[in-house]
Amino acid sequence: MGTYLVRRSLLMILTLFGISVVIFTLLRVVPGNVVDILFEAAGFVDEAEKAQIEKDLGLDRPLYVQYASWIAGLAQGDLGYSYASEKPAIEEIAPRIPVTTKLAVLALLFSVIMGVPLGVISAVRQNSGVDYMFRLVSLSGLSFPSFWLGLLTLMVFVGATGNLPIYDAETESFWDALLMYSVPAAIVGFRSSALIMRLTRSSMLEVMRQDYIRTARAKGASRNSVNYRHALRNALLPVVTIVGIEAAFLIGGLIVTETVFNIPGIARFLVEAIQWRDYPIVQNLVMFAAVVVVVVNFIVDLLYAVLDPRIRYGD
Amino acid sequence: MATDAENADHSARLAKAGAHVDSKLGELVFLAKRYPLGAIGALIVAVFVFAALFAELITIHDPLDTDAELSLTAPGAEHWLGADNFGRDVYSRIVFGARISLAVGLGSTLLGCLLGVVLGLVSGYMSGWVDLVVQRVSDIMQALPLLVLALVMAAALGPSLENTIIAIAIPIIPHVARVIRANTLALREQPFVEAARAVGMSDFRIAVRHVLPNTLAPLIVLGTAQLGSAILTEASLSFLGLGIPEPFPSWGRMLSESAAEYVRTAPWLVIFPGLAISLVVFGTNLMGDALRDLLDPRQRT
Question: Shortest CB distance from B148 goes to which of A140, A158, A286?
């Protein structure tokens, strides 16, 4: 286990390093930087002024110097300055993180609460009407764009109250916040619940075909006892692995949903920053997303070994 | 590229499943009965393909014609699905939008699959340092959420139809490469590959003539699954303003124009384009599930 941990950690660092190079390069090969966009908005180009701004922002330095200074800054917790607001990037990013975290946690909860039971029922009653209905529900979760579901929800909300909901970073009470965030979280989570449901169903079907299940039935255990005490426990193991995939999945849903609902989180902020070519914000946010995905997958791998005694990493 | 042997095998399997088929049509009917959901999916996709191919024939209004007087007309006899804020016919825009949506979906899926197959074959067949590099690069690409990677790519390349296709194709590559590599690794040890090597066939010829055809089934399954997700990604990118530029009628873009402000006044601008996206992706996913059950028995649920 020890060797495995070290190897896996090194690989994780290598991956993150690779990601930082990829993001940095992608953003620098863009035709047109923030200065061009500023001048485009202004409607004229002043070459001297343009050169001066590029110098102030450090854009005139060689690329490897820019990269090195970004990484060196990261190591010291210095994320650089936002081009758009000229404030330290950390001050722009930090207050938006809790908003998105709340949304993501609620979405994950929703997807598990909905996905697991539906998957289990679907498997237990394979090929029944209920099974077909649940499978169609989960497939629609994978097929309907979450921004459309968000717009439809807004439509219903406006129809009922006459106003659009407003999302502030500071809400009054815990319950208000929970109520407010639960709607967009359910929309984000619906898509992920489809993944969980499908995996739970196939994993459950797989387990139900095993010999020990037949043995349990043969010795007289009731159908329910076999399904829920023998099968479900083992069927849920592989479901844990999907949380790693979920992390990447959720981020995509958060981006569009925060945009639709005008929620001031980091996911919507990423889109704004990309549109503005605000490199310090974009590269740090994308890096943040990558760290979340990589670390979650790392934890899931370890968790899997802890939960499943058949898996022992290393030596 | 089905060989006679494969055809015989396929017919034998059908016969075993209780089908008495002697024609292509009979086979199709049998499959449709066996996979009703897949058949419905194929039908939905066929309708959209038809709309995309014959858009000019089934619309009256030009999707780009603006008319201030018609701004925000409700659905009616003349404009079946209403008109948008510029007075453009929503029905025409949705029909022509099918062209964009399918072109981007198919284009990026094919491009991603093609590059993924090449990388997967090379890395599985050559192994060694090539394999190591391809694997680590795949790790890196897969650590970035699909939409985030596509967003950054789209922003880096600039808004255009071709660039949107490339931006969506890139995240598909590592997925396909992984699957093809795993298959290649398994196939490489098969007796028929050894036999080919024994008679002196070149590595390239073995990879293309013997390994590649045997990875087609999982490739088709994976490709269909990616198609739906590619169409969704295009819609999301266009919705966020980083996908298909004006004047192309893109479903995602139609929703971003009409977003929150028309939710109140013109619900048809929100309902119909979203319905089109949902239906076509739903169709491809239904089809994909049926294809997986048919071609990839290992994953059958």
Answer: A286
Tell whether A270 lies on the interface with B, counting CB pairs under 8 A.
yes
| Interface touch A286/B153, C-beta < 8 Å | no
Q: Which of A25, A139, A188 to mutate to test the interface with B (most CBs of B within 10 A)?
A: A139
Mutation to test the A interface, candidates B144, B255, B258, most A Cβ within 10 Å: B144
Would an 8 Å CB–CB cutoff place A31 in contact with chain B? yes
pTM of the entire predicted model? 0.88
Is B148 within 8 Å of A154 when comparing Cβ atoms?
no
pLDDT tens series, chain B, 301 aa: 444 445 555 656 666 565 555 677 777 888 888 888 899 999 999 999 999 999 888 888 888 888 878 777 888 877 778 888 778 888 999 999 999 999 999 999 999 999 999 999 999 888 788 888 998 888 888 888 889 989 988 888 878 899 999 999 999 999 999 999 988 888 888 898 889 989 988 888 888 888 888 888 889 888 998 999 999 999 999 999 888 888 788 999 888 865 667 777 888 888 999 999 999 999 999 999 888 888 866 554 4
Across the interface, do A23 and B286 touch by the CB < 8 Å criterion?
no
DSSP string, chain B: ---HHHHHHHHHHHHHTT----SHHHHHHHHHHH-HHHHHHHHHHHHHHHHHHTTTTT-SS-TT---GGGTTPPS-SSSTT-B-TT--BHHHHHHHHHHHHHHHHHHHHHHHHHHHHHHHHHHHHH-HHHHHHHHHHHHHHHHS-HHHHHHHHHHHH-SSHHHHHHHHHHHHHHHHHHHHHHHHHHHHTSHHHHHHHHTT--HHHHIIIIIGGGGHHHHHHHHHHHHHHHHHHHHHHHHTTSSSPTTS--HHHHHHHHHHHHHHH-THHHHHHHHHHHHHHHHHHHHHHHHHHHH-GGG--
Binding-face residues of A in 43-82 toward B, CB within 8 A: none
